[in-house]
Write a structure and sequence with these properties.
Helix content: over 70%
Pfam families: MotA_ExbB
Protein name: Chemotaxis protein MotA
Number of domains: 1
Distance between the termini: 34 Å
Radius of gyration: 26 Å
Largest sheet: none
Keywords: Cell membrane, Flagellar rotation, Membrane, Transmembrane, Transmembrane helix, Transport
Membrane topology: Multi-pass membrane protein
Mean pLDDT: 87
InterPro entries: Flag_MotA_CS (IPR000540), MotA-like (IPR047055), MotA_ExbB_proton_chnl (IPR002898)
Low-confidence stretches: none
Length: 257
């Protein structure tokens, strides 16, 4: 569970609820079916026009899953795991990889290719293709959520305009002025909250996840290829520390020493 995402959503919702309670706690005054239909329906329709249906069906579930989960293995840990695997292969041969436990699925896939004796080019092409397809779907999720976040405030403004038109068209009937004004204001509120608390932050979080996964999976591919060539564990570590920030490289090398 990504604690930052969960806490951020809870804190944002708490701010909105807290302000409503400070205003008297009349939650019914902040509910408008017309405003909800305009904002949710309009933003959904606009997003569906922007993307193929297959992209939405891939992007939305993957976006939700990776926005609320965090990768348990850090690049430093991956380097240590790859170093351990390289040491096993040098001492006992590739077939020994069938008996070791590897927690990361992508790394386990690469180790299985080595144990099965696949050639270098097959391993590189297959793993790079898997990485690129995974990152493509993650990028699709980010774009879908960002598109929804772009549309929601605009459709909130559409709801505001419609509410204002209804209000001015019924100036002679005071009983209709209140509901029309509520629809106008709540549509703007719904659009702003959806965009700035949910969809745009999730889109940015997915972009960060994409960059992290790109680094981790590229590191794994290079490490697997080095192990496939039966390079020493020391060389594997020295080659892979280039993926780490400078302030982490010395710590990894010192720990190895």
């Amino acid at each position: 569970m990504d604690l930052a995402t969960a806490l951020g959503l809870l804190a944002g919702a708490g701010v909105v609820v807290g302000l409503i309670m400070l205003d008297g706690g009349h939650f019914g005054a902040y509910v408008s079916e017309h405003a909800a239909v305009v904002v949710f329906g309009g933003a959904t329709a606009a997003t569906m026009i922007r993307f193929p249906f297959s992209t939405i069906m891939h992007g939305v579930p993957m976006g939700l899953r990776f926005a609320f989960t965090t990768r348990s293995v850090k690049p430093q840990d991956l380097i240590e795991e790859l170093t351990r695997i390289a040491d096993v292969v040098r001492k006992s041969g590739p077939i020994a990889l069938e008996n070791i436990e590897i927690s990361d699925p992508f790394l386990a896939q690469g180790a299985r290719y080595i144990a099965d004796g696949y050639d270098r080019e097959f391993i590189r092409d297959t793993m790079e293709r898997d990485r690129d397809n995974f990152l493509l779907h993650l990028d699709e999720g980010s774009k879908v959520y960002r598109a929804y976040g772009d549309c929601a405030p605009a459709w909130g403004m559409v709801g505001t305009i419609l509410g204002m038109v209804a209000m001015f068209a019924n100036m002679s009937d005071p009983s209709k002025l209140g509901p029309a004004m509520a629809t106008a204001l709540l549509a703007t509120l719904y659009g702003a909250v959806i965009a700035n608390l949910i969809t745009l932050p999730l889109a940015d979080k997915l972009h960060v996840k994409l960059e992290e996964e790109d680094v981790s999976r590229s590191l794994i591919i290079d490490g697997i290829l080095l192990i496939r060539d039966q390079k020493s564990s020391t060389l594997v570590r020295e080659m892979l520390v280039a993926y780490l920030p400078h302030h982490h490289r010395e710590a990894v090398m010192d720990a190895a020493a």
